[in-house]
Write a structure and sequence with these properties.
It is a single chain. By secondary structure, the protein is mostly beta strands. The protein has a domain of 78 residues: Immunoglobulin-like, CATH 2.60.40.1930. Helices cover 0% and strands 43% of the residues. It is built from no helices and eight strands. Strands 3-2-5-6 form a four-stranded antiparallel sheet, with no helix packed on it. Strands 1-4 form a two-stranded antiparallel sheet. A hairpin with a 5-residue loop joins strand 2 and strand 3. The protein is elongated.
Length: 130
Amino acid sequence: MYKPGEKVQLRAVVVNPSLVPNYNTPIDIHIKDGNEKRVIEWTKLYPKNGVIAEELQLSAQSVSGNWTIVAAALGRNTTKAFTVADYVLPTFNVEVVLPTYATRNRSEVTATVKAFDANGKAVKGDLTLE
């Protein structure tokens, strides 16, 4: 997942049926945003050391949704999707550690509950079980 304003980096490799890189085949690549609008296109890229490497700097106002990278070579298209969305790190995480098994004979189960902030520091709070 990418946030608006981040950089998307991509690599493409053309291989023959024996999975050997093909250095002489040009690749056309384009990226479509979450509205299916083509936002960038590279044509007739030739691999350097067997690999095409490109990048796209997303604007701060990029469209959210599922974006698609389309690479075309030798009459075939290959696609890869990625998501662009605004996301916020959770303010804290809760970890509950339970025994690997429990039996009906016991009316109690012992568990460990821990809470951490986004930086991994312990968070104090109250726990209510019903």
